[in-house]
Specification:
The protein is built from six helices and two strands; from the N terminus they run αβαβαααα. With about 100 residues, it is mostly helical.
Length: about 100
Amino acid sequence: MTQAKPSLAGFEVEKVVADKAYDSRTLIEMIHDHGAQAVIPPHANSQHPGGLISRSTKLVNPVERFFSRIEHFQRVATRYDKLDECYLTFVMKTLILICLA
């Protein structure tokens, strides 16, 4: 959770799609303060379950499936690359491999 806020800084987006692990009241408020909609399913035991739009919730599933598929590649899952550019390049190569298969 500590890296979510710096990762979102500097971007102008309409929606932020994330999974249940990012269901934090402070993070959701930060997203709303930047003028975006938080599409984050609430935890089962959440005291403040957010009212998600069902159409927006459908965006979460393809994102989760994508990351599940690329994590089968050891280099992506373990982040051997020291530079962000190298890591992003390998993620793109992985995506191309998945699309070609």
